[in-house]
Amino acid sequence: TSPLYHDGTVIGALCVTRRISDRPTPSDRQLVSWSAETLSHVIHRLRSLQEIEKQAREDGLTGLSNRRTFDLQLAREIAALRDGSRLEFSLLLLDIDRFKSVNDKYGHLVGDEVLRATAGVLREQRARMRSDEPAHLARYGGEELAVLLPGVGVNGALRIAETLRLAIAAQTIVSQEAKLKVTVSIGV
After folding, report:
1. Model pLDDT for residues 27-46, shown as the tens digit of each residue
2. Which residue among the candidates 53, 113, 143, 177 is catalytic per the annotation?
């Protein structure tokens, strides 16, 4: 067994077994050590690549999909409608009401907390939605968020929009500067 290291931290172990009972030679040990080191580097590169790919897909502040990822998903949904593999989908565009006044009065750090908290409510509500496919959540830009609802028609989208609106209005965002209630306007 040989530990796998990255930056001095053990991240795993490489275990090699042999079918013969002879003791491993120094060259066998050296080969296992070299293999463990090589595997450590490969694992580190893969983790780095995964992190880069995640940063390319997600909004760093909210953890929701970013605009680029959202645009790609929207294009897929439109293509599915055109080729007949999807009958319907809905899009909700949410705008946090009076967001500029939150930033002006309390500062951008509080504004960031409002965005994170609102994104959290969207994730909680998505988990409660009954649908064949999960909703796609995105930060569309600034204080605007988007919810793409595959397989959901306008009546379902209106119900979901109202549920989201009420859930967001019910939250209290607590920061060192203030306790805030926010509302959103939603276009379906």
Report:
1. 877 877 777 777 777 777 77
2. 143
